[in-house]
Structures are given as structure tokens and as C-alpha cells.
């Protein structure tokens, strides 16, 4: 009479042991698939182990499916036993991803394993993708928008003497500036004065009384 056969449980595969059983047949034993792998079955019979696909992982043996990488992590290789955190300058909100997305211009991320990037505040900017910090507007420049990729030069008749400014200031009375990007306005000199602020030309400097 023959021996009694039993099915391996889902997550295990049938392996030859190399030993003869009591009936003279090579015996088999059920073995769990290694970490980073899972078992597949057909018609209830388990045949072989498969590597976890990219974007998935498994850190225990004897399973029938791999797990999706969580948001903020990724797996770009098959048979992964763990997922890696997105590097600073990138993020992902998607489950089971194989790559993290670089932060877009105007945004940044300085922490690993994040699901989104952070918008730069007004007065700051990021000109390229994948950055870990925002840059402040230089003197002579300003920006009043979030997620900016550049700062605007101060217009003629205006200036900015400090970093990370959201707006430029107008030249005061008795000063002027002709070009763009001023960090200070030019004094008229002597007894000359201007009738208005925001002056853009030296010709606006006149003697008191308009003479």
C-alpha cells in the first residue's frame, strides 16, 4: 500500500529531502519560502517560490504574498526584505512605489521618509528640483509668493537692503535709484531734494522750492 500524501500549506513549497521513505520513494518536506520571497499555488498545490516584485517586500519566511512599501518608502529591487526611506529632497505618497519623486521647484524636504515636500515661504525660493532647503532672496531682490523658483529684482526707485524680503521699499525723499536690484538708494546730495518718494532719476533732485 502507498503512503498518505498531504498538501503543503500556502506559503510553503515541497522540497525533496534526498532520503527514502518507508515505501522506497524519495521523501519530501514542506519548506517556507525565504524572506524576500513568496510562494505561488495552482489548483491548491504549491510549486515554487517567487521573488517579491519591486515596490514590495517581505521580512518573514513562509508567506504567500509580499507587502507593499509604505508611503515615504520604496523598493527598486526584487526580493527586497525591507523598504528604503525616501532621501531628503524627495518624497512619495504612493504605496508600493519603486522610486521617490524629487521635490519640485519652489519646494523642499530636509527629512528622509516623507510623503510630501514643503512649500518655500515668501521671501525664499528654490530654483531646481530635489532640494533640501530654500534659499533667501538676496538684498536687491524680493518675492511675495510661496513656492517661488526665483526672486524679483527691485524696480527703479525701489530697494531692498536685507535678505528674505517679501517686497522692496520705495526710495525715500531726497534719494533716487535708476537701475534694477538696488540695495540702497542714492542721495541727491547737497541741498537738493525730491518732491516725491520712489524717484528714479537724478534729474528729480532739485533745489528747494523747485528751482
TrEMBL record:
SMART domains: Ephrin_rec_like
InterPro entries referenced in this protein's UniProt entry, alphabetically: Growth_fac_rcpt_cys_sf, Tyr-kin_ephrin_A/B_rcpt-like
Xref: Pfam families: Ephrin_rec_like
Domain Tyrosine-protein kinase ephrin type A/B receptor-like residues, every copy: 96-123
This protein's name: Tyrosine-protein kinase ephrin type A/B receptor-like domain-containing protein
Organism placement in taxonomy: Eukaryota, Sar, Alveolata, Dinophyceae, Noctilucales
